[in-house]
Design brief:
Order of helices and strands: EHHEEHEHHHHHH
Oligomer: single chain
Radius of gyration: 18 Å
Number of strands: 4
Structural class: alpha+beta
Strand content: 5-15%
Distance between the termini: 45 Å
Number of helices: 9
């Protein structure tokens, strides 16, 4: 059944690796596109989820991408020996569902991760790097993530790294009396500003 499903994930995240290692393995959007196009050209199927908290590759069948991931780390001067996450079959599917729902986020229930999964999937589809199995698993994970937002307390009180940072700052100083400068161009900086 699901245990035997040829669906896999390899990578690292905030549970397995510190920020320095995650930064070494971060992909720019252009690098994601190029890598996915290479996978498609080779007849492989994959999805690359590269965020500030994770760099994970999901794939079905085809060549095992764990060795490629280890080689990538070495080429960037990093070792992932103690930080590598590898899941197969049902465990890999469950992990993707947990990620999409915000249950694997640094801040429980983080809302941004659902959009990050959606964009990673859109990039993989645009590159022709998906198949029916990836389409089915990722689509179901996105539906589940939206349901978590809509039907649970996680959705009623959306969280993000930015909102957590603001909460900590507000507990230390009266923010209404302060001026602030936020450095950054990503979703976290935008969330802090809001």
């Amino acid at each position: 059944m699901l245990r035997d499903l040829p669906f896999h994930v390899v990578g690292l995240n905030h549970h397995t690796a510190g920020i320095e290692l995650r930064e070494q393995l971060a992909f720019s959007p252009a690098e994601v596109t190029a890598w996915l196009q290479g996978q498609s050209a080779a007849g492989s199927t994959a999805l690359l989820l590269s965020t500030c908290n994770r760099c994970e590759i999901y794939w079905t069948g085809g060549p095992d991408l764990e060795g490629w991931f280890r080689d990538l780390a070495l080429s960037r001067g990093a070792s992932v020996a103690d930080a590598l996450l590898r899941l197969d079959g049902e465990a890999a599917v469950r992990h993707l569902f947990d990620v999409a729902a915000g249950l694997e986020s640094q801040v429980l229930g983080e809302a941004e991760v659902l959009g990050q999964v959606r964009r990673a999937y859109a990039a993989a589809r645009a590159a022709g790097a998906t198949n029916r199995l990836i389409d089915a698993v990722v689509s179901a994970a996105l539906v589940a993530g939206r349901r978590v937002r809509r039907e649970t307390m996680l959705g009623r009180h959306p969280s993000s790294v930015g909102s957590a940072a603001v909460d900590v700052a507000a507990s230390l100083v009266p923010l209404a009396e302060c001026r602030a400068l936020v450095l950054g161009a990503g979703e976290v900086a935008e969330g802090v500003l809001k």
